[in-house]
Amino acid sequence: MNFKLKIKEEKNSFEKENKVVWQSPSNIALIKYWGKKEKQIPQNASVSFTLSESYTETEIVYSKKESNNKIEIKFLFEEKDNELFEKKIVKFLNYVLKYFPFLTKLNLTIKSKNSFPHSAGIASSASSMSALALCLCSIEKKHYDSLKTNDTFYRKASFIARLGSGSAARSVFPFAASWGKHADLYNSSNKFASILPFNLHENFKSYNDAILIISKKEKQVSSTAGHNLMKNHPFAKQRYKLANKKLQILLNALQNGDLDGFIEVVEDEALTLHSLMMSSNPGFILIEPNTLAVIEKIRNYRKINNSKLCFTLDAGPNIHLLYPDNEEDSVFEFIKNDLQNYCENRFWISDKIGKGPFEINKQNA
Questions:
Q1: In 180-335, which ranges are E strands?
Q2: Which of 211, 227, 315, 338 is deepest in the core (most CB within 10 A)?
Q3: Considering the chain, what is the average pLDDT of its residues?
Q4: Three-class SS state of 324
C-alpha cells in the first residue's frame, strides 16, 4: 500500500485558518515489541490492549504561509513552550514530509497535553505520536481527494504513527490491536497495525488495567537503545520464534475467553522482556525491589482468592495489573490495602480497555 500523497489539486483551500483535534490513547503490549529492523520494522508481531483513560490530546491550528521551503512550527506541551519536544516534532515532520508534502506550505501551531503525568511510566510516545498522526491524516483528508474510507484513513495513521514510535501504530485501533506480520493474522503487516481479525471475547472487552507507579524515575536506558541491543543479543533468534508462538496462544485465548491461558502467556511475556534486558550486552535492570514485591503479592492473592488478575510490565519498573470487570471492587481493596504502599507517593492510575481514538471537533459538532 502506497501512503505517499500525490498533490494534484486542493479540495479545500488553506487560505483560512483551520484546526484539527484528536484524542488518542496509550496501549499496553501483551506480546511485546522488543527488537527492530530499520524504519521501525518489528522483529516479531505484537498484540496490545488499547487503553481508555490514559490518552494524549493533540491540536493543530494551521494556515497558509508565504514561503514554502521548510517546515515551521510552534509547539506547546501542557500550554508551555517545550524546546526539546518541538525539535523532535520538527525532525519527525521532516521525516514524513514525503507522505504529507503540503506541510511546507503551512504555518503550524501544535498543542499537546496528556491525561496522565508525563513521568508516570505510561507509554506517552504511543498516545502522542498516534494523536499527531491522526491530525496529519485529517488535514490530508480535508484538503485532498484521498483517505476516503475509514480503512485507508486509519491504516495511514497507523503507518505514520509507527515511524514516530513503533508501539504508537497500535493505538489508533479500539480494544485490541496487532502489529507485525504473523501467519495467524491474515490482515497483518510490519508497516501498520490492525484490529484483530475476530471478535474479541466478551471476557476481555471490559478488562481493567490498574497502573501501579512503582517509580517515576527516568529510565536508565532508552527504548531505542534497548531495541538496538537486541541486534547482537545471544537469544534474539529464539526470542522472536517464541514470541510468535506465544502470540498464537494468546490469540486463541482472546477469541475463546480463556482467562487462565491469557494469564500464563501475559506474565511469561512480561518477565521474558526483562530477562532479555538483563542478558543484553551491556545488561541493564529496569525492575526495582518494589516491583518484585508487588509481583509476589499478586501471585499470592490470585492463589488465595482464585482470582483472574495478572500483571504485565513495559520497559520499566511499573506494573500493569490486568483483571476482569467483575473483580473491580475486590482488586481496588487489594491495591488500597496491600499494593499502594509500594507505589511512589502511593500513586496509581485506574484504567481499562478503550474504544480507541476520536476526533474531538467532529464529536462535538
A1: 193-195, 208-212, 310-313, 319-323
A2: 211
A3: 93
A4: coil
What are the angstrom distances between the C-alpha of 347 and each of 117, 144, 340, 353?
11, 46, 7, 20
Question: Residue 350 and residue 53: Cα distance in Å, rounded?
Answer: 8
| CA pseudo-torsion sign 260, 262, 263, 264 | positive
Cell matching residue 4 = 505517499
Instruction: Clarify whether residues 131 and 221 are in a common domain.
Output: no
Q: For residue range 264-302, list pLDDT tens digits in order.
A: 999 999 999 999 999 999 999 999 999 999 999 999 999
Tens of pLDDT, residues 200-238 = 999 999 999 999 999 988 777 788 888 999 999 999 999
From the number of C-beta atoms within 10 Å of its C-beta (0-12, 13-18, 19+), residue 4 rates as exposed
Q: Going by C-beta distance under 8 Å and a sequence separation of 6 or more, which residues neighbour residue 12? A: 142, 143
- Is there a single domain that holds both residue 284 and residue 229? yes
How many CB atoms lie under 10 A from the CB of residue 183?
Answer: 10
